[in-house]
Amino acid sequence: MCFPTPTLPQFPALDADEVATVTLSSLTDCLIVRIPDPHDIPPNWEVYPIFGADPEDPDWRGEQEPAGLWDEAIEDMVELKGIELRIEKADLETYVGMQVELRYKFADESSLELSSEPLLVRIER
Q1: Backbone phi and psi for residue 72, each to the nearest 5 degrees, phi listed first
Q2: pLDDT tens readout for residues 92-107
């Protein structure tokens, strides 16, 4: 199962087959990666960004964020909307002058991991 490509709200929207150019000088501290809604993943899973052509063996893996939160009123997990992941500027430095595939992955407790379609990103100073 593949999910839609991530979006980069700090940069102009692109068609799926276009390469996004990320200019480090235009970032203050991190690149924001937005997960499209609805993402149809159980809210007790985690989501994180990755770089690399092989989603099973990524070149880089970011911090995990929850896909949902506990709601005391209904005593159950609820899905988060508008999930944004952050990639530190320092982590992007490795890829300056390169084109790399950016994805997000969902993971559950049993080690099942599902990834999105890639967004091609070119990192420039």
Answers
A1: -60, -35
A2: 999 999 999 999 999 9
Compute the distance between CA of residue 6 and CA of residue 58 in angstroms, rounded to an integer: 16
Tokens 């099973």 identify what position?
Answer: 56
Q: What secondary structure does DSSP assign to 10-76, as a single string?
A: TS----TTSPEEEEGGG-SSEEEEEPPSP----TTSEEEEEESS-TTS-SEE---EESEEEETTTTE
What does the longest C-alpha to C-alpha distance in the chain come to? 49
The model's confidence at residue 1, banded by pLDDT at 50, 70 and 90, is low
Please tell me the pTM assigned to this model: 0.92
Q: Judging by beta carbons within 10 Å of its beta carbon (0-12, 13-18, 19+), is residue 47 exposed, middle or buried?
A: buried
Q: Which residues pair with 113 in a beta bridge?
A: 107
